[in-house]
């Protein structure tokens, strides 16, 4: 059977020139989508074609390998990613169809009519909870749809939720990004770096970002002056989250930081609102701004009505917890189909490890989080009393709305798989690693690139964690710090990942306008990346080295 060995520096035998070639598909995607405002699905298709050409012509990948790698990614784009998006939006649409979303909206506005605080509650706290419980696109899809239902403009709803999703990504999906690195890298003495110690190190980086995110969200929405007006809410929301994130990641492992931090943040801000209200109620330009002492009074609903209205999301939470329990996941794994991908399974040799790379279709329909969300939707149908006819009709309508977004996701995940299978991602990583002493500052950018390409902090950690450790040992950087920096840098790449853009656009009805969303998020991604790089550099150069936990 023909084999393909990835080439690390195939162009002029130079790592930097090779990296520039590997960058071409990424630059092409950004320019075509943001610059020329081509629709997302077409941009994804064209980028996939460009990536295949680069892989075959410059990285010497046989065409059949490139074609099968693309198919491998496109299938993953459908299951689980596309399936999660479809079911998430479907669950939200059911609450709208039944009229219960009006009660959800009223229950939130009874706390506050202020758009700034609504964003903190839904985008930051509730979004972080969903990220910790599910991940894989569901948090942004659900929270963005909720904000649109509350009256947020679609672009702001999606953009704010994507920026808010920065804080919890490293510990998303019950700690999966950190668990994936367990033992993957080693200390100087050769002992493996455990996930618990990586979690502790991340927990000494991201809280510095998490405490800032609520302020940054409101700054984006309303400006500096309006942000200062609600400083108590910002302090309570971000501060409680950051403290809980630090404590849980350092003393409880990698599974619980998001879930505990988000719940504490959510409860803290709700308690605050019982004793404090902003002097003015801020809304977006074009909405009525209330500068009086009183807010508009939301319609009153009974406790039972409110509980029934929120029940789909309560059921969703319980089902996701059930779906992600280890015994349940183990059982689902026995039902999954994992056929080998023709031609490429164990026939691609990694340019980093020199080992054969397995390639299988993970057709885990029952174990997919998307199926869990669908089960939650079916259970909720009985609670909110939606007829089977309306339920089925809502599902068809939802599919019709997101079908082009699903196509976009297929293309961009296919592009990500080509980047990885051809070795282009490794080349980009090694080019950054070859920066010498500057690596102490740019190491988080490796994770940022990894998440941009793959759409997943878990995948980016699997891709670059070992490279981070090897490079760190060469430049005198603590390997634990470098591995954690990969995860921390990756979280700020999520908001500009093609997959994330497609997911958010689908959730708020911006399919075909993905370019607007990318232009909204890209500058914030760079700003937050620089902040993370600065934190890591200070920890690496001695000024904040005391923050690194003791280890072998």
Can you describe what's shown?
- The chain is mainly α.
- It contains 24 helices and 3 strands.
- It has a 3-stranded mixed β-sheet with strand order 1-2-3, with no helix packed on it.
- Strand 2 and strand 3 form a beta hairpin.
- Helix 7 (154-164) runs parallel beside helix 24 (514-540).
- The longest helix is centred in the first third of the chain and has 35 residues, at 63-97.
- It starts with a strand and ends in a 12-residue tail after the last helix.
- Mean pLDDT is 89; it is low at 291-295.
The percent of residues in helical segments reads 55-70%
Provide the gyration radius in Å.
Answer: 23 Å
Tell me which oligomeric state these chains represent: single chain
DSSP helical segment count: 24
Question: Main β-sheet: number of strands, strand sense, barrel status?
Answer: 3 strands, mixed
The secondary-structure element order is EHHHHHHHHHHHHHHHHEEHHHHHHHH
Q: Tell the overall outline.
A: globular
What does the average pLDDT come to?
Answer: 89
- The rounded distance between the terminal residues' Cα atoms is 44 Å
What percent strand? under 5%
Low-confidence parts: 291-295
- Structural class designation: mainly alpha
Strand tally: 3
Strand order of the largest sheet: 1-2-3
Explain the layout of strands and helices.
Elements: E1 4-5, H1 15-35, H2 40-57, H3 63-97, H4 100-109, H5 115-133, H6 138-150, H7 154-164, H8 172-179, H9 195-202, H10 206-210, H11 213-222, H12 224-229, H13 231-251, H14 257-273, H15 303-323, H16 326-335, E2 348-349, E3 356-357, H17 369-383, H18 388-422, H19 424-433, H20 439-454, H21 457-475, H22 479-491, H23 498-508, H24 514-540
Parallel strand pairs: 1-2
Antiparallel strand pairs: 2-3
Helix pairs in contact: 1-2, 1-19, 1-24, 2-3, 2-18, 3-6, 3-17, 3-18, 4-15, 5-6, 5-7, 5-8, 5-11, 5-13, 5-14, 6-7, 6-23, 7-11, 7-23, 7-24, 9-13, 9-22, 13-14, 15-17, 18-23, 19-20, 19-21, 20-21, 20-22, 20-24, 21-22, 22-24
């Amino acid at each position: 059977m023909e084999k393909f060995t990835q080439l690390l520096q195939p162009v002029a035998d130079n790592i930097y020139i090779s990296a520039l070639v590997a960058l071409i598909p990424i630059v092409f995607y950004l320019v075509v989508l943001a610059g020329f405002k081509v629709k997302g699905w077409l941009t994804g298709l064209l980028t996939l074609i460009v990536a295949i050409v680069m892989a075959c012509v410059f990285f010497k990948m046989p065409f059949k390998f490139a074609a099968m790698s693309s198919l491998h990614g496109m299938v993953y784009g459908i299951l689980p990613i596309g399936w999660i998006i479809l079911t998430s939006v479907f669950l939200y649409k059911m609450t709208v169809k039944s009229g219960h979303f009006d009660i959800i909206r009223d229950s939130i506005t009874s706390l506050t009519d202020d758009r700034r605080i609504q964003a903190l509650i839904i985008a930051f706290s509730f979004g972080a909870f969903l990220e910790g419980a599910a991940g894989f696109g569901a948090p942004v899809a659900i929270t963005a749809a909720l904000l649109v239902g509350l009256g947020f403009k679609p672009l702001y709803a999606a953009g704010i939720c994507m920026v808010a999703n920065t804080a919890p990504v490293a510990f998303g999906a019950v700690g999966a990004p950190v668990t994936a690195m367990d033992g993957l890298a080693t200390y100087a003495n050769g002992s493996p770096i455990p996930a618990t110690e990586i979690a502790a190190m991340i927990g000494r980086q991201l809280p510095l970002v998490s405490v800032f995110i609520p302020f940054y969200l409101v700054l984006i929405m309303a400006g500096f002056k309006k942000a200062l007006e609600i400083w108590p809410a910002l302090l309570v929301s971000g501060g409680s989250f950051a403290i809980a994130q630090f404590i849980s990641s350092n003393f409880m492992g990698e599974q619980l930081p998001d879930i505990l931090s988000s719940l504490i943040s959510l409860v803290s801000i709700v308690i605050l609102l019982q004793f404090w209200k902003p002097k003015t109620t801020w809304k977006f330009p074009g909405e009525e701004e209330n500068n009086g002492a009183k807010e508009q009074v939301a319609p009153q609903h009974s406790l039972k009505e409110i509980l029934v209205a929120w029940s789909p999301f309560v059921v969703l939470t319980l089902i996701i917890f059930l779906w992600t329990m280890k015994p349940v996941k183990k059982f689902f794994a026995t039902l999954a189909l994992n056929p080998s991908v023709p031609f490429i399974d164990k026939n691609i040799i990694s340019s980093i490890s020199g080992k054969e790379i397995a390639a299988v279709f993970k057709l885990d329909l029952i174990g997919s989080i998307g199926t869990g969300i669908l089960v939650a939707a079916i259970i909720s149908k009985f609670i909110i009393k939606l007829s089977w006819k309306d339920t089925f009709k809502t599902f068809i309508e939802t599919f019709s709305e997101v079908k082009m977004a699903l196509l976009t996701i297929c293309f961009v995940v296919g592009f990500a798989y080509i980047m990885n299978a051809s070795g282009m991602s490794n080349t980009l990583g090694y080019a950054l690693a070859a920066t010498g002493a500057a690596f102490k500052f740019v190491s988080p950018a490796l994770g940022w690139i990894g998440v941009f390409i793959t759409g997943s902090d878990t995948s980016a950690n699997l891709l670059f964690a070992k490279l981070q450790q090897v490079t760190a040992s060469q430049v005198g950087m603590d390997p634990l710090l470098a591995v954690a920096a990969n995860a921390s840098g990756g979280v700020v790449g999520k908001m500009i990942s093609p997959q994330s853009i497609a997911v958010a656009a689908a959730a708020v009805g911006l399919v075909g306008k993905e370019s607007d969303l990318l232009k909204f998020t890209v500058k914030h991604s760079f700003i937050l990346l620089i902040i993370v790089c600065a934190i890591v550099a200070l920890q690496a150069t001695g000024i904040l080295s005391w923050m690194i936990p003791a280890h072998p």
